[in-house]
Amino acid sequence: MKTTINCDIGEGMGNDASIIPYIQSANIACGFHAGDMETMRNTIAACMDHGVTIGAHPSFYDRENFGRKEFDLPIHELYELVIQQLLLINDMAESMGALLQHVKPHGALYNLAARDIITARCIARAVKDFDSRLTLVGLSGSHSITEAAIMGLSTASEVFADRSYQDDGSLTPRSLPGAMITDTAALLKQVHQIMKDGTVTSQNGKTIPLLADTICIHGDGPHALTFAKAIHESLFTA
Question: Which pLDDT tens digit goes with each residue over 3-36?
């Protein structure tokens, strides 16, 4: 898969239409952590206008914490949680003549699947049972990717432009200083290192190898549009 820029979007931030021209792939909120039927419809329509790939961005049911609080759910409930959201966005996409192409979990669900093999396996199973043609997007080098691959799903190893990394290749928790990259120059430095060397430097200075199929920007970040433009210009127009 050619390296693309993806964005978590459809979360009611009001910047979707501005960001979409600078990305190739959109992870659209399914209403459980943010967004609703109207935002799904509008985001899908904008993606269709710009030839941007449409994907589901399922989460824990947690609008209060924007899907960033972890919940300990039984496996069957976790499975149904993912299926319900895939049904919602897929029905919307089909009604508009669009095709759902990938799934990327959001927030706490994403991070849990990255480090916990049982969660990763459950999500991969739900995606495969729903539509085995879908690509599962997950943290590069994590259980999300390995478990999906074992099940025969297509995968996209994701790296982050606007997040810092820990020595084990995990993302720095948002509760810690420096978790979010807020400077455009620092962002582009990290992106260029990933693209050129296939590595990222952790907060402690460790060099970590990373496979990068797709580069994420968070649509809810205050610099989302600036970052999307900068990465697009650097990678695709330079």
Answer: 899 999 999 999 999 999 999 999 999 999 999 9
pTM for this one? 0.96
Regarding the domain delimited by 4-236, which CATH topology (the fold level of the hierarchy) does it fall under?
A: TIM Barrel (3.20.20)
SS3 readout for the chain: CCCEEEEEECCCCCCHHHHHHHCCEEEEECCCCCCCHHHHHHHHHHHHHHCCEEEEECCCCCCCCCCCCCCCCCHHHHHHHHHHHHHHHHHHHHHCCCCEEEECCCHHHHHHHHHCHHHHHHHHHHHHHHCCCCEEEEECCCHHHHHHHHCCCEEEEEEECCECECCCCCECCCCCCCCECCCHHHHHHHHHHHHHHCEEECCCCCEEECCCCEEEEECCCCCHHHHHHHHHHHHHCC
Does the structure show a pLDDT above 50 at 139? yes
Residue at 221: amino acid letter: G
Backbone angles phi, psi at 40, to 5 degrees: -60, -45
pLDDT in tens, 66-88: 999 999 999 999 999 999 999 99
Answer yes or no: are the C-beta atoms of 134 and 93 closer than 8 Å.
Answer: no
- pLDDT above 90 for 117: yes
Statement: residue 1 has pLDDT above 60: no
Q: Whole-angstrom Cα distance, residue 230 to residue 190?
A: 13
Domain ranges of the chain: 4-236
